[in-house]
Amino acid sequence: MKIERLELRLLKLPLVHFFETSFGRIDDKHFLLVRVDGGGCTGYGECVAEQDPYYSSETNDTAWPIIVDFIAPRVLGVEFAHPREVFPALKAIRGHHMAKAAVEMAAWDLFAKQRGEPLSRVLGGTRDRIASGVSIGIQQSLGELAAKVEHELAAGYQRIKIKIKPGWDLDAVETVRARFGAIPLMVDANAAYTLADADHLARLDPFGLMMIEQPLDYDDIADHAALQRRLTTPICLDESIKTVGIAREAIAAGACRIVNIKPGRVGGFAESIRLHDLCAWHGIPVWHGGMLESGIGRAANVHLSTLPNFTLPGDIAASKRYFDPDLIDPSIEVAADGTVAVPTGPGIGVTIREDRIHTATLKKLELRS
Ligand code: OSB
Ligand code: MG
């Protein structure tokens, strides 16, 4: 496989509803889209960096020059026997996993398209449908939260995740449990607490949550291990798991019992597979996280979620919750049983709406070998 041409775009897509986490609210999604061409085929990779360095230190404005100046020269015109060779070829560049993942995932899509196989098969996946959960942002009131949960349960989602932060935690969980009973429920703090909040967080234990995601700092392992010793609720790490090596340390330290996998956070599919396999070896279940991706990134996530240790429902909801219209046709849909069908066509297996990409483009650059 050889990438002959790489096209980079900055897109802006309006969100159907604003999305609020412990680090802020967004109304529009700004993201980079990588297109690679080679051997008459085209692959796409969506970058999950955001506008602000709040979820991670990367942003659209850091990913752009890193791709142009450092990643593209290491992949353009290079013959790769397999896309798993792309991440090692970028080893000289430290960090910048989201920028690397966007190009690496486009290379996997290109490779799968050249072979005429669905991406799920090339990745080693084993299922044809995946279980879908939903992530509900911080709301203006407990009443609005209950209405949102009701709406998503009716849509069939297999588990509900609610975002929490200090001042929006115990009451929010209590409201959902009181109204909806023993539904599969979890919370995500996006690093909003410290170990000094351990007693407070332990008050979540009686609610029987599936897990608490990333309660403490984004690069912390030791305090999560100390917190896990004080909680019966399993801790799931998201932000902290930046590499397979850190995951190994986190598991050894007892800092988490569950891991959220986002390819953008670890540098792409090859590293995600290594992380998946490490967790499977240690009996740690994984699930696929989401970064409010458009249908292009969402489809890629669906394919990765077909690997066997993705045993918990992921944050891969229907496109229409976020974008209307989406960049793909038909969009990603969730069936009444809360599952998403894995596209069966070559690569990510979805039809790209070039016209909508064109309309959403703020900036574009074309690179050739
Ligand atoms: O922490 O999982 C997260 C969105 C943006 C940044 C971080 C996170 C999220 C979500 C939304 O929780 C998941 C989704 O529906 O895409
Ligand atoms: Mg998270």
Descriptive report:
The chain is 34% helix and 21% strand. With 369 residues, it is an alpha/beta fold. It folds into 2 domains: 5-116 and 353-368, Enolase-like, domain 1, CATH 3.30.390; 122-341, TIM Barrel (Alpha-Beta Barrel). The strands form 4 sheets. Strands 5-6-7-8-9-10-11 form a 7-stranded parallel β-sheet. It has a 4-stranded antiparallel β-sheet with strand order 3-2-1-15, with helices on both faces. A two-stranded antiparallel ribbon has the order 4-13. Helix 1 (60-75) crosses helix 3 and helix 9 packs parallel to helix 11 (269-281). The protein binds 2-succinylbenzoate and magnesium ion (MG). Magnesium ion (MG) binds at residues 188, 190, 213-214, 238, 260, 289. Magnesium ion (MG) binds next to loops.
